[in-house]
Amino acid sequence: MNPQVQAVTDRIVARSRGSRGAYLDLIAREAETAIRRPALGCANLAHAYAGTEEDRERLRADAGMNIGIVTAYNDMLSAHAVYYRYPEQMKVWAREVGATAQVAGGVPAMCDGVTQGYPGMELSLFSRDTIALSTAVALSHGTFEGAALLGICDKIVPGLLMGALRFGHLPMVLIPGGPMPSGLPNKAKAAVREQFAEGKVGREELLEAEIGAYHSKGTCTFYGTANTNQMMMEVMGLHMPGSAFVNPGTKLRQELTRAAVQRLAAIGGRGDDYRPLGRCVDEKAIVNAAVGLLATGGSTNHLLHLPAIARAAGIVIDWEDMDRLSAAVPLIARVYPNGSADVNGFEAAGGMPFVIRELLDAGLIHGDILTVAGSMADYGRKPAIEDEALVWRDVGASGDETILRPVATPFSPDGGMRILQGNIGRACIKVSAVERERWVVEAPARVFDDQLDVLEAFRAGELERDVVVVVRFQGPRANGMPELHKLTPPLGVLQNRGFRVALVTDGRMSGASGKVPCAIHCSPEALPGQTGAGGPIGLIRDGDLIRVDAVAGTLDALVDAAEWDARTPAEPPAAASGMGRELFGLFRGASDEAEKGASAVLAGGGM
Asked: What's the pLDDT band for 258 if we cut at 50, 70, 90?
């Protein structure tokens, strides 16, 4: 193993010893004593079997594994619309190996692309906690010996895992649906967005471009949070190997789903290859996910999601671990917004099998983790259909070295994720898509409490200068930590005009954040919590000189220390209501800080 990766792994193991031990005790106890289907009362079983006719006798005979399907299907969200027929197909494939399958429950799946910049976005992050709770409810009936988790996008995969890991004594497989075919290139779409922000094209031209980019069923093709989820599931060994980026509606996609169902039926507690989820997701698997994130330039949202997933399994990972790993892990992929190719180009160049093989050979990921299918080395091979059968082949060399490179000749010697610390607090920044000369920005602050006010100021010409845009009261306790992706086009326009521009916020940026330096997830957040004052980001005033330095790893207001200490924190805006936001007050009030995962259910559940 690479010594730095091993050192970080050892650090996580030592830090997590007590909590991980308690978690393993929990799932061992559940495996031994939890309610099992044959032991349920007759009325209970009758209720569980009443909805099925074809499988009722097999269920009654307890002849094989009963698989619970937890699905995020809806047909408003392109990535999840593909799941429409999956349950009925999965039931057929389960029967082929003597198992049964039932839909255990559905979880909500909202789309940040639809809600960006609007009030519904303030429900987005806590939809992850809602999904975790919904997953737990779905699996609470005691009628399943394993589970198939159908989910892809931003909060859905982390939420599914957070809930499923509380049933970690059961084997589980995540089943993706694949990306939509390529449409209008992402770079061209971004250019039209910037032209619209400048008033050079109208709404009709913008809509035409957006529909050209997002045009069919499947995951969006840029390398944002949804596709980073799929990368992580591969490198953690929770998919069938090579299944992340195979397009929907293909024979290969169908056969990979069939193989996932039948593999799940083979790894249950009654057989000789028991692979419970809680044992698969261990410290090494979490490190693998972090390394994959850095090696591929994935979404900054996983600086929230990965700590939350880990915590649900009794594992504690922090941003310092990510920073140390970033220094050791080379960037070997360039996928939009870190390059011009989309995920279909990435897949054609070798995709995750190439990435995993390279990282394994270089000792950058752990090869000895318990996966759902074979060894980690099996994930370095590419699936294909040969003579109507599913096979896996050696992946070979990169098919396009502008997209994928070997570890020996990376795009960058490090992973491009930095931790910033200073008198404004602690934040993170992704620089893998930011030009090197923009890694340091020092400029006067313009302070906002609402992202819509930033857009108004831009339209009014008030930001036509070197500027650090500060958007505060955007943390999980304040308003649910919405993404601020709507700010990307105007800030990009200002940067294109030659100004030195940066964003500092206690909120999130999109998984598609790119060329503008953004210090995000600033912690502590501006809104005071139950145990202390609000974060120092609330002390910044218009005109303060702010230095964002991704080279030195600092984030400071260049204000006299005595004056800084004497300042009174800004008054928080009134809590918003409407669009259901008031229903999530409990989550906001109970949420922990960003570095711990910005979760209410984990903070309140003793995990």
From this structure: very high
* Per-residue confidence band for 34, with pLDDT thresholds at 50, 70 and 90: confident
For the stretch 423-479, pLDDT in tens is 999 999 988 888 999 999 999 999 999 999 999 999 999 999 999 999 999 999 999
| 185 and 159 Cβ atoms separated by less than 8 Å | no
Residues in CB range of 191: below 8 A, 6 or more apart = none
Kindly report, residue by residue over 82-135, the tens digit of the pLDDT.
Answer: 999 999 999 999 999 999 999 999 999 998 888 888 888 889 999 999 999 999
CA angle 11/17/23 to nearest 5° reads 130
Q: CA 316 to CA 336: how far, in whole Å?
A: 30
How far apart CA 117 and CA 62 sit, in angstroms, is: 50
- The single residue listed with the structure tokens 């057989």 is 271
Q: How far apart are CA 599 and CA 607, in angstroms?
A: 11
Residue 153 counted as an annotated binding residue: yes
For the chain, give the mean pLDDT.
94
Query: Which domains are delineated in the chain?
Result: 3-34+65-181+216-394 (no CATH), 184-215 (no CATH), 417-573 (3.50.30.80)
Distance CA 319, CA 294 (A): 12
Top mean-pLDDT range of 163-167, 198-202, 296-300: 163-167
pLDDT of residue 186: 79
- The number of CA neighbours under 13 Å toward the Cβ of 369 is 32
Task: Give the Cα separation of 279 and 271 in Å (integer).
Answer: 16
Q: How many Å apart are CA 397 and CA 353, to the nearest integer?
A: 11
Q: How far apart are CA 133 and CA 152, in angstroms?
A: 17
Integer CA distances (angstroms), 553 to 60, 323, 418, 440, 566, in order = 61, 10, 7, 10, 26
- Going by C-beta distance under 8 Å and a sequence separation of 6 or more, which residues neighbour residue 175? 86, 148, 149, 150, 239, 243, 257, 260, 261
Q: How many angstroms separate the CA atoms of 8 and 13, rounded? A: 9
DSSP state at residue 122: G
Q: What are phi and psi of 394, to 5 degrees?
A: -60, 140
Q: Are strands 501-505 and 417-422 parallel, antiparallel or unpaired?
A: unpaired
* 499 and 530 Cβ atoms separated by less than 8 Å: no
Q: Given a cut of 60, is residue 531 above it in pLDDT? A: no
Dihedral over Cα of 235, 238, 239, 240: its sign: positive
DSSP string, 556-575: EE---HHHHHHPPPPPPPPP
Cα–Cα distance measured from residue 501 to residue 465, given in angstroms and rounded to the nearest whole number: 8
- The β-bridge partners of 384 are 391
Amino acid letter at 170? L
Query: pLDDT, tens digit, for every residue of 259-307?
Result: 999 999 999 998 899 999 999 999 999 999 999 999 999 998 999 999 9
Q: Are 163 and 132 in contact (CB under 8 A)?
A: yes
- Asked whether the beta carbons of 189 and 212 are under 8 A apart, the reply is yes
pTM of the model: 0.94
Say what the pLDDT of residue 607 is.
58
95 token code pair: 């029967």
Whole-angstrom distance, CA of residue 524 vs CA of residue 267: 43
280 is in an annotated binding site: no
pLDDT over 60 (residue 512): no
pLDDT at 513: 62
Q: Report how far residue 499's alpha carbon sits from residue 517's, in angstroms, rounded to the nearest whole number.
A: 12
